Amino acid sequence: MKDNETAKLIAIVEDDPDVAKIIEQVLGDFGFRTVWCRSAGDLLRRLRTLAPDLCIIDLGLPDMDGIEAMQRVRAQSACGILILTGRAHVSDRVMGLELGADDYMLKPFEPRELVARVRSIVRRRESVETSGHQMAEFGGWRFNLSNNRLLAPNGEEHALSTAESELLKVFVNNPNRILQREKLMGSRDLAPTDRAIDVRISRLRRKLEPDAQSPAFIKTVYGAGYLFLAAVTWSGEAG
């Protein structure tokens, strides 16, 4: 159990009080601080003064579609995002991942699995923030691992989600090497039918590649994995 100074803050965006109470209780039992927001508007107002480490967002919110809420959170915060939804449609889950969510869970959920996924996202976020090398440069791009910012050669700045940053971190630390999908997913168990990594690759390509159909950096090696084709240099400045 962590003290309140170091415990991670989780924002729960859920309009069902009973579900919210279960989430608050189980996360509290495992040392997390929580704040409950009944609506997307409530969360967006609180983000002006709160800096949660992770937001758990229900897709079925009363005042705003959860996908839109997630996009607005992502636009103003680098926090982790976990989608919690009763929607079983694959398209909803894929759209959530494409738009910047780090993971998703379906209702009804197993409380311990929820905790495990929250911990996984928070750990990934911390690993990006505490990397010894803070700035990676490749092909005119600059990637700041301390704040998830990606600076294009033309000076345009992109904010990456935690999942995108984790993926790019693996690539810049392993340039010119074929990486299996399992390696790119980190510690998460990967089923043969799990296409989450491919969705994340697609998201990252759209930001990095002028022509995503003919990528210059992230190459697909069919039957083997992916290759990050770039010369990477490092510096310790925060940028």
UniProtKB/TrEMBL annotation:
The modification 4-aspartylphosphate is found at residue 58. It comes from Dechloromonas hankyongensis. InterPro entries: CheY-like_superfamily (IPR011006), OmpR/PhoB-type_DNA-bd (IPR001867), Sig_transdc_resp-reg_C-effctor (IPR016032), Sig_transdc_resp-reg_receiver (IPR001789), WalR-like (IPR039420), WH-like_DNA-bd_sf (IPR036388). It comes from the Bacteria. The lineage of its organism: Bacteria, Pseudomonadati, Pseudomonadota, Betaproteobacteria, Rhodocyclales. Residues 133-230 form the OmpR/PhoB-type domain. The keyword 4Fe-4S does not apply. This is Response regulator transcription factor. Keywords: DNA-binding, Phosphoprotein, Transcription, Transcription regulation, Two-component regulatory system. The keyword Transcription applies. Residues 9-122 form the Response regulatory domain. Residues 133-230 bind DNA.
